[in-house]
Amino acid sequence: MEIQSWWLLALPFFFGLGWIAARIDIKHLLSESRALPRSYFKGLNFLMNEQPDKAIEAFVDVIKVEPQTIELHFALGSLFRRRGEITRAIRMHQSLLERDDLDESQKRYTLFEIAQDYLKAGLLDRAEESFVKLEGTEYAEASLRFLLEIYEQEKDWLKAVETARQLAKVTGQSYQKEIAHFYCELASHEMMNSKTSDAKVHLEDALSVHRRCVRSNVLLGDLEANLGNHDEAIAAWKRIESQSPDHLSLVSSKMLDAYEKLGRFEEGLTLIKGYLSTYPSVELLNVVFDAELKANGVESAYHMVRDELRKHPSLLGLDRLLEAQLMEAPLERRKDLELIKNLVHQHAQNLSQYRCENCGFNARQFYWHCPACGGWETFPPRQSEERK
Ligand SMILES: [Zn+2]
After folding, report:
1. What's the CA gap between 318 and 27, in Å, rounded?
2. Using an 8 Å Cβ cutoff, are 370 and 378 in contact?
3. Separation of 229 CA from ligand 1 center, angstroms?
4. pLDDT tens, position by position, 173-205
5. pLDDT digits over 328-380, tens only?
6. pLDDT tens across 40-86, in order?
7. CA-based diameter of the chain, in Å?
8. CA 178 to ligand 1 center in whole angstroms
9. Rounded to an integer, what distance in angstroms lies between the CA atom of residue 210 and that of residue 338?
10. 376 occurs within a structural domain
């Protein structure tokens, strides 16, 4: 009985406390909202209705009245950049950097923002300079990613290697594949300038970073073949089988040329035919067909492609089969065959495209570095027809 009456007294007391607390909160909110200009809410409203242009206008009005609102400057700066108004974004961030009422963390944030403005504006030197300054800050990791993008754009591969190494350390992720490609880029550059020994060093570096780097063996083979060392070239290309057999199609034609130069074309053809039976692909079929045609004539090429087509039906195989048939067809059948062949050929060509696994970009040629999304080794060495 005693406990119940005590509660009866205590309840209104706590209720009263809650009421006072709520009133204080509401009063605080009201005073804050009264302090904010109407344009601020207009701007917010536009933003929520996805009308960033009108939002920008409204926020610019707020800044005119309340120039001390730093956070709003930040928001506007990034809005400008997103809208592609880079000059306005840069001006906004520059004026912030010139202010002396920014604390250290706000200064770092502004630097990070202006660096992105410069990058978007294509002012790579200035972007690089700003991102480098952010080393050791909370923006270090993001800055390193942007720096890597910059060095890739500038084709400054040594700096790209260094940055990727730092990124691997910071993030704990592997950048082996990318680093190996940067060394391959360096090697390609040296090869173009006939600096063979420098190129070789880069290719060895690539393989030591990433043992499965197919591209280094492709390039090493090219390098040896250019020097006339066809045996060494073949040896380098053969190593691709243990790395990624699918990529053999990229070098099979070059391998045959090297064997031919050594006077051992038949040996080369037997090797590539062996690849075709172990790792069937339309690319290898194409190479074998041309080689067979050249070495042993239409009849032999026809039988080869027919057998292959039975095992692995493909449009490109059919295209080559019709090609062989057309060569031997009597004059009266030739017109009909040609009509069918052209149709099949056109369709096979449309399907024969490499496709980036990262962004879906289609290309007639094979790329190690996707021109659309910038991914490294995102193109499988097989064309669309087979993947489907
Ligand atoms: Zn891509």
Report:
1. 81
2. yes
3. 35
4. 999 999 999 999 999 999 999 999 999 999 999
5. 888 888 888 888 888 888 888 888 889 999 999 999 999 999 999 999 999 99
6. 777 777 776 777 677 777 777 776 666 667 788 888 888 889 888 89
7. 118
8. 14
9. 48
10. yes
Q: Is 44 exposed, middle or buried (0-12, 13-18, 19+ CB in 10 A)?
A: middle
How does DSSP assign 96-112, residue by residue?
HHH-SS--HHHHHHHHH
Q: Measuring CA to CA, how many Å separate 208 from each of 164, 176, 223, 351?
A: 16, 10, 18, 37
Domain interval for residue 381: 353-388
Q: What percent of the chain has pLDDT over 90?
A: 57
Q: Looking at the domain assignment, is residue 44 inside a domain?
A: no
d(Cα 302, Cα 327) in Å, to the nearest integer? 10
User: Would you state the pLDDT for residue 64?
Assistant: 65
The pLDDT of 92-105, averaged and rounded, is: 86
Kindly state whether residue 378 falls inside one of the protein's structural domains: yes
User: Which run of H or E residues covers position 39?
Assistant: helix 38-48
Domains held by the chain: number? 1
- Evaluate whether 343 touches 242 at the Cβ level (below 8 Å): no
Cβ 276 vs Cβ 285: under 8 Å: yes
Q: How far is the CA of 283 from the centre of ligand 1 (A)?
A: 21
Q: How many residues does the chain have?
A: 388
> Could you tell me the pTM of the whole model?
0.80
Q: Where does 155-195 have alpha helices with state H?
A: 157-171, 176-192
Q: How far does the centroid of ligand 1 lie from the alpha carbon of residue 134, in Å? A: 29
- Per-chain mean pLDDT for the chain: 87
237 part of a folded domain: no
How far, in Å, from the CA of 251 to the mean position of ligand 1? 23
Residue appearing with tokens 């039906």: 313
Rounded Cα distance between 310 and 134, Å, is: 61
Distance CA 285, CA 79 (A): 54
Give residue 187 CA to ligand 1 midpoint distance, Å: 23
Between 341 and 145, whose confidence is greater? 145
The candidate with the shortest Cα–Cα distance to 180, out of 210, 136, 152, is 210
Compute the distance from residue 366 Cα to the ligand 1 centre, in Å.
12
Ligand 1 centre from 379 Cα, in Å? 8
Q: Supply 352's token pair.
A: 């024969």
Inform me whether the pLDDT recorded for 3 exceeds 90: no
Do 349 and 336 meet the contact criterion of CB atoms below 8 Å apart?
no
How many angstroms separate the CA atoms of 382 and 290, rounded? 19
